[in-house]
Amino acid sequence: MTDPLSQVFAALGDPTRRDLVARLTDGDATVGQLATPYEVSVQAISKHLKVLEQAGLVSRGGQGHRSPVHLEAGVFDLMTKWIERYRQRAEARYQRLDAVLAELAELEDEEAGHRPPHTEETA
Amino acid sequence: MSTTQTTPRTAATIEADPTVPIIRVTRDFTATAAQLFRAHTDPELFARWVGPDGTTTTVDRWDASTGGAWRYVSAHEGMEFAFHGCFHEVRPDRIVQTFTWEGEPDGVALETLTFEDLGDGRTRLRSQSLCDSFEARDAWLRSGMEVGVDHGYAKLDTLLAADGVTEAAAEVGA
Description:
The complex is a heterodimer.
Chain A: H1 4-11, H2 15-24, E1 29-30, H3 31-35, H4 42-54, E2 58-60, E3 68-71, H5 73-112
Antiparallel strand pairs in A: 1-3, 2-3
Chain B: E1 13-16, E2 22-29, H1 33-41, H2 43-49, E3 56-62, E4 69-76, E5 79-91, E6 94-101, E7 109-119, E8 122-130, H3 134-146, H4 156-161, H5 165-173
Antiparallel strand pairs in B: 1-2, 2-8, 3-4, 4-5, 5-6, 6-7, 7-8
Helix pairs in contact in B: 3-5
C-alpha cells in the first residue's frame, strides 16, 4: 500500500496504535514511557511505532528508547480535509434531494387534493 | 416530544471506518420514509438530485426492484461518466445495491441505504458504501481534494493528464 491515506488508515486499524496516538496528543513521550502501561515489551511498542512512523503519523528524535516520539498532526489535518470535502459533496447532493422532496410533497398534496372536506386552498 | 415547528436541518455527517473500507454518511430529511424511498427509486426524480451541480444525468437502465439493475450516465462540460450496478434488495426501508464506475470496471462497491422514520415527518437516511479495497475507498474520499466543491473543473485537464481520472469520476459519481 503506497497510498498515504491507506497507510494512515491501516496504521490506525490497530487498537494499541490508536491508543498510542491518543496518548501522544498530550505531548511527546519516549518509547519507554509509552510502553509502561502495556503488558507488552518495549520492542513490541517499537514495532507499532515503526508502523505509525511509516504512515507519517509520528516522528522520532532517534532510535533509542529515550528519544522522544512526536505526533505529526499535519497528517490528521490532511485526512480530515479529505473527509470533510467528501462530506460537503454529500451535503450538496442531499440539499438537491431536499428540493426534490419538497416538490414531491407538493405533488402528493395535489394528488390527494381531490379528497373531500376542508381544503382551504384557493388556486 | 416536538417543541418547535421548524426543526433545523441536520447537516450530513460522515464516518470513514479505520478497520474496514467503509464510508458512512447520515443525514436527516424533512420528508417521510416513503418520499425518500420514492426519490431513490423513481428514475426521473433520482436523476434530478444525484448531481453534482451542473451535471446532466441520463438514466438508461432502471429496474428498482430486488434483483433489478440500473445504469446512468453523468455529463458535465463535454465529459461523460457512466455508472452501473444491481439492485440487490429493494424494500421500503432499505435499498442494497452494487456500484461500479465504468472507467474502472473491475471495481465495485456495495451500498446500503436505510430510511428510518424519526416521527414528525422526518426521516434519517443512512448510507454505507463498502469499497473493495482501502485504496478504492480512499480514492473516493480523496476525490474532493482535486475537484473541490467550488467547481474547480478547470483542474480536470491536469487530472486527466495524470492518473486522476478516478478522482474526477468519483466527484461526479459520489
